[in-house]
Specification:
The structure is a single chain. With about 400 residues, this protein is an alpha/beta fold. It has two domains: about 15-45 and about 285-390, Aspartate Aminotransferase, domain 1 (Alpha-Beta Complex), CATH 3.90.1150.10; about 60-280, Type I PLP-dependent aspartate aminotransferase-like (Major domain) (Aspartate Aminotransferase, domain 2). The protein contains 15 helices and 14 strands. The strands form three sheets. It has a seven-stranded mixed sheet, with helices on both faces. A five-stranded mixed sheet has the order 1-13-14-12-11, with helices on both faces. A two-stranded antiparallel sheet has the order 5-6. β11 (about 315) and β12 form a beta hairpin. α4 (about 65-80) packs parallel to α12 (about 270-280) and α5 packs across α6. The longest helix has 26 residues, at about 285-310.
């Protein structure tokens, strides 16, 4: 697979490239889209071949291949993450945005508070608000280049109205991998406060060499009676547009409540999304992911060196994900100034740090899942946009 072969996504109804001018004022003609979390290279051949076979067949009626899908997910979780599950624990969703919305619908009530640890994926807070629930925001502590938990502080922020905790593992936007001890501490916090624990692990396949990711259930099996784990092929294989994800719910009672609600909504996933994910979660898919990570390591190295060359700018060391979290506090600039330099000077659409909540005020997030030449171009533009600091 040639991850560096340029793919032109402008004009293809791609939100990442075709919305950046409206959202960020970055010219569509020559801007670089480095914001939303999808990748710019084609997915694995095994996925494309499976989809091609389905479309060549040409009949798209009712589908009953969910057993194959569940077995593939279980195989993947065992072989890539050392987590042995019963395939019946898996409930399919229309992507992980839908999964979070369903968890809010089933396990909380309007007016409830939901705990999040910020800075974190901005859609957590937005989905909580859309569902008529309220956010209890607990800031993480940035210790050098590493985010850490302060659960005593988090405890002090609770109102007594909290019923759910939405957790992000690995952490988005920083790429932090939580240790088993930290996950157990979060599990204890959830138990102490009677919280359903929803662990979004969508980035768990994008782990860099030398790092180890541990699923929440493997780290803290004592939390099974309150745990809903979310995963999907969407980030790993860039299949977000096919709208298929998974809830893995070990506890029969929690799983039964969710399954009943899904039946009431007459929910079934798209056959093409199921076919694509079944093909992805295979030995061929695993080999492609390994090659993608090697590509991301090269991109990370180029980007981090470029940011380090700009005085006052640092890119936090990534343990996982393709999302670089860049701190501009050392420049002394207010957010509006460095954001404008990035959007107007460098002509790069990046995700604004404040959208990720408390702690994101001096940051921007850059997506590195693109061709190496585009990462090099981004570095060149950033250096020029901040040239007066050098």
């Amino acid at each position: 697979m040639d991850f560096d072969a340029l793919v032109e996504r402008r004009g293809t109804y791609c939100s990442k490239w075709d919305e950046m001018e409206d959202l960020f004022g970055v010219p569509a003609s020559d801007g670089l889209a480095m914001w939303t979390a999808d990748s710019d290279y084609p997915t694995a051949d095994c996925v494309i071949e499976a989809l091609r076979a389905a479309t060549d067949f040409g009949v798209f009626g009712y589908y009953r291949g969910m057993g194959l899908f569940r077995d593939a997910v279980a195989w993947w979780l065992q072989n890539r993450h050392g987590w042995t599950i019963d395939p019946t624990w898996i409930l399919p969703t229309q992507g992980l945005g839908n999964a979070i919305a369903m968890c809010l619908d089933v396990y909380t009530q309007p007016g409830d508070n939901v705990v999040i640890f910020s800075p974190v994926y901005h859609e957590f807070a937005l989905k909580v608000g859309r569902a008529g629930r309220k956010v209890t925001e607990c800031p993480l502590v940035l210790n050098g280049d590493r985010y850490e938990l302060d659960l005593d502080d988090a405890q002090s922020r609770l109102t007594g109205n909290e019923t759910m905790l939405i957790w992000c593992s690995p952490q988005n936007p920083s790429g932090r991998i939580w240790t088993p001890a930290e996950l157990r501490a979060v599990a204890d916090f959830a138990e102490r406060n009677g919280l359903t624990l929803v662990s979004d692990e969508v980035h768990h396949d994008l782990i860099y060499p030398g790092e180890t990711f541990v699923t929440f259930d493997n780290a803290a099996p004592q939390a099974r009676d309150r745990l809903v784990m979310l995963c999907a092929s969407s980030k790993t294989f860039n299949l977000a547009g096919l709208k298929v994800g998974c809830m893995v719910i070990p506890d029969e009672t929690l799983r039964g409540r969710m399954a009943s609600r899904m039946r009431a909504l007459d929910y079934t996933p798209s056959s093409l999304g199921v076919i694509a994910t079944t093909a992805a979660y295979s030995p061929q898919g695993a080999a492609w992911v390994d090659a993608q990570i090697a590509h991301l390591v090269r991109n990370r190295t180029i980007f981090d060196a470029g940011m380090a060359a700009i005085p006052g700018v640092r890119s936090l060391p990534l343990q996982s994900t393709y999302l670089a979290w860049v701190d501009f506090s050392g420049t002394g600039m207010p957010f509006a100034e460095f954001q404008q330099r990035i959007a107007q000077g460098a002509r790069i659409a990046a995700s604004p740090g404040p959208s990720f909540g408390a702690g994101g005020e001096t940051f921007m997030r850059f997506n590195l899942a693109t061709q190496g030449a585009r990462v090099e171009e981004a570095v060149t533009r950033m250096k020029a946009a901040f040239a007066d600091l050098q």
